[in-house]
């Protein structure tokens, strides 16, 4: 079963409160999502493998460390996932960015794929699928299906807010995928919105209705 990590860092929790606030406008909402994505990227990279190298400092030759292991790719689920990419790239600037376009059919709540573009060396990368919201879990599950179909073997999922229903569905569908979240909320309402949540993440990020 994939592990679930909830990031309770005070800065993340503080910023998330203002992201949730309905009076937070588009500009500030976008900036806060970007900042939280950076803070979460710092947390998810905590266990990255390191290797030893020799470095000549101005004083001596020293044994120091650099990152080792697989290269990374960030996969935003369009559209709202885009709001988390730049924040992550601030810490992981060499990561490739793949894209997967999915929208939730408002009637059935089922995800519909309309775009996908991935790097060529898909088997050799650690993929971080990102989306602010994990509601029913349908979009995340479908995005990960799409990645696996193309040969990805190392996948993690990161979001700001998750409903318990979405976490359970994602764990069941993809038990090999760890889930990183800033907050696990109470439930979904009858329209598939997370309660208390933050509303429609895509609309709030891009100022649409
Ligand atoms: C939102 C959100 C997720 C999805 C979560 O996207 O950004 O992708 O819903 O819901 P689920 O877990 O029930 O699938 P939406 O479909 O509204 O598209 P958008 O990003 O283009 O606004
Ligand atoms: N998608 C959103 O943007 N918000 C929700 O609460 C659920 C799905």
From TrEMBL:
UniProt-listed Gene3D superfamilies: 3.40.50.2020
An annotated GO BP: uracil salvage
GO CC terms of this entry: cytoplasm
Keywords: Allosteric enzyme, Glycosyltransferase, GTP-binding, Magnesium, Nucleotide-binding, Transferase
GO molecular function: GTP binding; magnesium ion binding; uracil phosphoribosyltransferase activity
EC number(s) recorded for this UniProt protein: 2.4.2.9
Chain positions recorded as 5-phospho-alpha-D-ribose 1-diphosphate binding sites: 79, 104, 131-139, 200
Source organism superkingdom: Bacteria
Name of one Pfam family that matches: UPRTase
Phosphoribosyltransferase domain segment(s): 6-208
Keyword Membrane: no
Role description: Catalyzes the conversion of uracil and 5-phospho-alpha-D-ribose 1-diphosphate (PRPP) to UMP and diphosphate.
Descriptive protein name: Uracil phosphoribosyltransferase
Provenance organism: Candidatus Kurthia intestinigallinarum
